């Protein structure tokens, strides 16, 4: 097993006993994710733990360790004569403290594993929720118990935890929403979107996190927000008004840029906005806005960018105006809009 110094060992024990702070817990979590030796030590301990516990994720190494330990215990129990029995008892007595330590550490790993899992991947499996959905083309305004107002864009889903407001105010978003958060310094408001968590005390901001989009985007209109990615404190970003954080799901990297408020929040006023969107992203946006599947027929369109604002007009008129500046055509095939053409 990889070396673990006393400080970290006591820190982990403290975590198990619930005696460390949230900051120390975050430190442990970050160290597991960034320090391979430390992570390996946890993995080794997990193998020992697996000797008497269910093994998560069908870990083959852990199963092998479990089989080896069970085999050794069975061999000890099979020794028949008294001297051998005394010898067996001696070995078992010698092993007992080790197994007790292993069990304790194993419990630690189990707790840490579940804690880590809870923070990752939306971490909401065991919580009760109130769910709010919008269909393609639909927008909905939602008032939360604390006075916060959320405007939900088309094809979106907002889940509000059943214990919302007890200690924290947590919601889970898939899609796009604008948040007008009621200020409460004692109860932070947290928006979970995949591996990105946005925490505020009271402010106005927009979050776009559709499942089929390549990026998650947080755009701050007023106040301050804290954005965390992959539970990695070293990647924490504090946004000022007018700044936008774009997180790539592909490489896990984030960048901060300026933005124009109308480009980001225009959808609230029924304005369909393309801000140098790729045709791939534009097709997704058209599909969500008008509620019909939109497909691109020509790969040459993938090299094009779209810039423009369209206020509450039918899809064919939007495409007609785009055609004035771009060589495109379209047709309906069943219930699907097929767009073809090339960049000018």
UniProtKB/TrEMBL annotation:
Superkingdom of origin organism: Bacteria
GO molecular function (one): sigma factor antagonist activity
Entries under InterPro entries matching the protein: FecR (IPR006860), FecR_C (IPR032508), Ferrdict_sens_TM (IPR012373)
Domain Protein FecR C-terminal, chain residue ranges per copy: 271-339
UniProt entry keywords in alphabetical sequence: Membrane, Transmembrane, Transmembrane helix
Chain ranges of the FecR protein domain: 133-226
The protein's name in its UniProt record: DUF4974 domain-containing protein
Membrane-spanning intervals of the chain: 95-115
């Amino acid at each position: 097993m990889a070396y673990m110094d006393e400080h970290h060992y006591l820190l982990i024990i403290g975590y198990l006993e619930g005696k460390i702070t949230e900051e120390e817990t975050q430190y442990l979590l970050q160290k597991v994710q960034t320090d391979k030796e430390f992570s390996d030590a946890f993995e080794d301990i997990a193998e020992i733990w697996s000797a008497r516990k269910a093994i998560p994720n069908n870990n083959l190494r852990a199963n092998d360790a479990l089989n080896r330990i069970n085999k050794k215990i069975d061999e000890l129990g099979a020794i028949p004569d008294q001297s051998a029995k005394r010898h067996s008892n001696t070995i078992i007595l010698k092993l007992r403290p080790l197994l007790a330590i292993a069990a304790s550490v194993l419990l630690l790993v189990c707790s840490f594993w579940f804690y880590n899992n809870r923070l990752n991947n939306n971490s909401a499996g065991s919580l009760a929720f109130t769910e709010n959905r919008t269909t393609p083309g639909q927008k909905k305004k939602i008032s939360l118990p604390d006075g916060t107002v959320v405007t939900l864009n088309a094809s979106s889903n907002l889940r509000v935890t059943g214990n919302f407001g007890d200690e924290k105010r947590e919601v889970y978003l898939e899609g796009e929403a604008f948040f007008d958060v009621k200020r409460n310094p004692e109860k932070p408001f947290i928006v979970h979107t995949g591996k990105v968590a946005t925490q505020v005390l009271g402010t106005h901001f927009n979050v776009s996190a559709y499942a089929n989009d390549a990026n998650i985007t947080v755009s701050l209109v007023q106040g301050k927000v804290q954005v965390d990615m992959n539970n990695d404190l070293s990647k924490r970003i504090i946004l000022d008004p007018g700044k936008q954080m774009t997180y790539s799901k592909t490489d896990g990297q984030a960048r901060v840029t300026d933005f124009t408020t109308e480009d980001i929040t225009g959808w609230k006023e029924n304005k369909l906005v393309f801000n140098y969107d790729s045709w791939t992203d534009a097709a997704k946006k058209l599909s969500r806005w008008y509620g019909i599947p939109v497909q691109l027929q020509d790969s040459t369109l993938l090299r094009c960018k779209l810039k423009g604002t369209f206020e509450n007009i039918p899809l064919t008129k939007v495409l007609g105006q785009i055609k004035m500046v771009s060589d495109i055509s379209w047709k309906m095939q069943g219930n699907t809009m097929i767009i073809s053409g090339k960049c000018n």
